[in-house]
Amino acid sequence: MTYVVTELCVDCKYTSCAAVCPVEAFHEADDILYINPDTCIDCNACMYECPIEAIFPDYEVPEKFKSWTQKNADEAAKFPVILNSKAALKGPKCVDPSK
To answer: Contact, 25 vs 36, CB < 8 A?
Structure first.
């Protein structure tokens, strides 16, 4: 099992999920984060940290986001690993989860 970042993260890209990842499974693209399924240890820390609920276990990804499971696997290899914690970012399309 692995966790999957879905389309909900596009142009939002909080990085608090990556900060709690114990194995550096997150990769950062310009407008989204991806989880490398080969690195992910299924600890589920990231899912609880994501303020917009954009991360799902692969067996619970909503039907409309099913293609994102493979997309994470493919795209993670193209982008650098997030190696250190950094301040949570918030992109222009991100909805404030507290509202």
So the answer is: yes
pTM above 0.90, yes or no: no
The token pair that represents 43 in the structure block: 């600890």
pLDDT at 75 over 70: yes
Q: Cα separations (Å) of 85 from 16, 22, 71? A: 8, 11, 24
What's the rounded Cα separation, in Å, for the pair 45 and 42? 8
Residue with tokens 């990842």: 21
Give the domain 3-76 fold: Alpha-Beta Plaits (3.30.70)
Cα 63 from chain centroid (whole Å): 17
